[in-house]
Specification:
Layout lengths: L10 E10 L4 E8 L7 E9 L7 E6 L3 E8 L3 E10 L11 E4 L11 E2 L11 E7 L3 E8 L5 E10 L2 E7 L12 E9 L2 E9 L3
Length: 201
């Protein structure tokens, strides 16, 4: 494994969130898609009450979900996940997400295109995106010349987390040449993008 490597996915979902009213404590289960590096040793969950400054760290081992308990109800927490290898090298953190302890949903606070998986891909890539409020959304795939080669979504989406797939084909259903493509997400004048690598049919 190289000294600098990337965590393939961000925080994908909240499996469960609960509030223990007697103690005014909340619990949260985080889940993320696995990193595929062969020398993966485990994951770490970092969290705290200030964005970008994560005071606490817990080791999740090789599991791709982790339950945090004893969070103070009504307090906003910020979370990221990293992966580390057998030599102790650690990936860059995932996208940061926030959650008000005791509330229903964990989502990034801004329009977000989460890490795509698998990436590189051969059959299909799953695209995770978060829309912070109901918006008219456009999701397109562009080649490296900036040309739109596939329209994946155009229309209104409710606030929340959504999932799309791209099969490496153009709008006319013909497979595109193998290579790097950009996925573009636009909503209400904001934009996010990510590169994906298509290995070809």
């Amino acid at each position: 494994m190289k000294r600098r490597w990337a965590l393939g996915t961000g925080l994908c979902a909240v499996l469960s969130a609960g509030l223990a009213s007697a103690q005014q404590e909340a619990a949260l289960t985080l889940k993320w898609a696995p990193n595929t590096e062969p020398d993966l040793a485990g994951y770490r969950v970092y969290y705290g009450t200030r964005s970008g400054r994560h005071r606490y760290c817990v080791d999740a081992g090789k599991e791709t979900e982790f339950r945090l308990e004893g969070l103070e109800a009504g307090v906003r927490y910020y979370f990221v996940v990293t992966a580390y290898d057998l030599r102790g090298n650690e990936s860059a953190p995932s996208e940061e997400v926030s959650w008000v302890a005791g509330s229903r949903e964990l989502v990034p606070d801004a329009l977000t295109l989460l890490a795509s998986y698998p990436n590189p891909f051969r059959s299909a890539v799953t695209l995770e995106l978060v829309v912070p409020q109901r918006s008219n959304v456009t999701v397109e795939v562009l080649d490296l010349r900036g040309r739109v080669v596939r329209h994946l979504k155009a229309g209104e989406m409710p606030a929340g987390r959504h999932r799309l797939q791209w099969d490496g084909k153009a709008d006319d259903a013909v497979p595109l040449p193998a290579g790097i493509y950009l996925v573009s997400l636009k909503a209400d004048g904001r934009m996010a993008s990510r590169a994906v690598t298509w290995l070809g049919p």
